[in-house]
Amino acid sequence: MVRTLLVRGLLLGLLAGLIAGGFAFTFGEPQVDSAIALEAAHEAPGHDHAEEELVSRPGQKAGLFLATGLYGLAVGGVFALVYAGLRGRVGPRSEGALALTVAGTAFVAVILVPFVKYPASPPAVGDPETINSRTVLYLVMILVGLAATVIAVATARRVTAGPWARWVAAVVAFLVPVIAAWTLLPTVNEVPEGFSATLLWQFRLASLGTQLVFWTAFGVLFGWVSDRAAHRAAARATVASPS
């Protein structure tokens, strides 16, 4: 069964990645073009930006689908293994509801939590010399999101006062470490003075939207396929059982 789930996760992750790539191409790439044009306009006279470009813009746009597809493959595989470990242990018993719950939780923990503290910026924004430290800080926020999720689930399982009390306990247990990290970790602000706030906002919305499209598409597809597989298995078991 784990192998079936893994293959399902890889294929549906690839499909969801391509869907997210279409969204990023439509809504994100125009913001990247505008940011590059803005950067070129502020470069010193005589500086040839094209000389430093290892991959042309058309090549980068075509590679976007390869990148989101590979991202979907990797995430889909990891998701399937986590999903296999959670089935029947925590969360909803329905295959589809469990898939949507896990996908929604993953989006909040590994995408939304770090994004609030360290939102994405266009290629023209940011100091190349700080990319390593910024990457480390972003990974720390992902770990905080995952740890907060584990704490929230463990807390909810210990509460026996009813579903509302479990939800409140889980939300509080999740938010305490997340808010502490948002407050204590250093802030990164490398947006050049005079950079278009509207462009920055639109790019960040497109970036977050791409992740939202991916996780929504993947959660719905994985849940739908898993529900259909469970119904077919139940039907076969009913036919095979003696009357």
UniProtKB/TrEMBL annotation:
Q: Which UniProt keywords apply?
A: Membrane, Transmembrane, Transmembrane helix
Protein's name according to its UniProt entry: Putative cobalt transporter CbtA
Q: What species is given as this protein's source?
A: Nonomuraea polychroma
Q: Which domain of life is it from?
A: Bacteria
So where does this one cross the membrane? 62-84, 96-116, 136-155, 167-185, 205-226
Entry-linked InterPro entries: CbtA_put
